[in-house]
Amino acid sequence: MSLELVGRLQKEISITSHALYETVLALAERVNRKVQIMRLHWQATTQMTRIDEVTNTLGQQIAGSVLQRSTGRAGNDHDLTGLDTAVTWAHQRVQELKRSLIGIDTEIRQLKLEMIHADLLRLQQDLSVRSAGIERVSIPRGAAAIGQRLSDVPRSSSIHIAVVIRGPFILPPSEDLIFRIDDIVVLIGGQPELDRLTHWFTSHHHNTKNPSSNVPRQ
């Protein structure tokens, strides 16, 4: 066996081992984030239970006070002061628990964003190895794509429109969808065709009657 072949084998083994290590590390990080999210959900459930306990206790105190008055056994001023104190404490306690819930919700959102970011990075790496990519295109004011249907978009065998985002809505890429200003179009495909299609969405001067002049149709 030649030294060159041995060197190539060692390099391949090194690359494979490194990739395996990165995969195991990524899986461990993902599992760790999921465990943290589950723990935070449990904390949120506990806080919600405490809020229910506080409101139930206060409700029982108010109901008891009302019952006493309805049966002619009205409490004295001391009882009313105690009830007022209970209402004030319950309000402060509920507000405190709600602030805690907001903090927990923020942590959960951050962990989920980290998971999404890691997934997108891996996706981008997988695509870049194949000379492909993912693009987020926002249709600007005055773009010729405004008013065009999705069926009018120049197509290529390597291009796929993943989704169209319009304000708070995520729209499926149906053929009769009409593009509007500020629509966000997510594209996946080969980089050269991706660049040309991005220009089609943002250009003010492309020929809408013959869009295939920019990107060949399938």
Report on this model:
The protein is α+β, with helices and mostly antiparallel strands. The chain has 2 domains: 3-128, Helix Hairpins, CATH 1.10.287; 132-213, 2-Layer Sandwich (Alpha-Beta Plaits), CATH 3.30.70.1450. The protein contains 3 helices and 4 strands. Strands 1-4-2-3 form a 4-stranded antiparallel β-sheet, with helices on both faces. α1 (3-70) packs antiparallel against α2. The longest helix has 68 residues, at 3-70. The radius of gyration is 30 Å and the shape is elongated.
Distance between the terminal alpha carbons, to the nearest Å? 48 Å
| Order of strands, widest sheet | 1-4-2-3
CATH class assignment of the largest domain? Mainly Alpha
Radius of gyration: 30 Å
Strand percent estimate: 5-15%
- Please give the CATH architecture of the largest domain: Orthogonal Bundle
Sequence stretches where pLDDT stays below 50 over 5 or more residues: 206-218
Question: What is the molecular shape?
Answer: elongated
Strand element count? 4
What is the CATH topology assignment of the largest domain? Helix Hairpins
Helix fraction bin: 55-70%
Number of domains: 2
Largest sheet: 4 strands, antiparallel
The number of helices is 3
